[in-house]
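User: Show me a protein chain along with its predicted structure.
Assistant: Here is one chain, sequence first, then structure tokens.
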Amino acid sequence: MFYRFRCESEFYPALSRLPLHLRMKLDLAGVKFSLKDWLAFSFAERMVLCHFPIETEDEQQAFIAYLEFLSRKYLGAPLALTAPVNRLLWDSADPIPQPVVEKSAARNQAVTREEWARWNSCYRYALYKTAISKNEPEAFYELLGELREAKR
């Protein structure tokens, strides 16, 4: 499955940016690469990566192997690996991560425990990731509005 967010919709037709759902997969797998690297891959290859499952250890290893193949093919270098991000930063229904609490409260839009528990792991990751992002401060509020509107 590939979760798409309305706040990223302008990037989906060409996959010109790394979608939040893919960033989650990369974080969980401990893979680092740049937007420039991402754009070196063909559209079809980018689409495969977006839809690639990584729920099991075997799926995660296949995901990393495919990225290794693409990295060597297009970049002429091995894949840059780092420590995987601990999914407990966002995956638990309680407590709400501090960056999400602070960012949502900054505009009197505090995320409630009921909302946080209702949203699935991918949605919570997206909120967490946008809460800690320094590049796009407004993305957090767009995403929060989208999740609340959809009542996911």
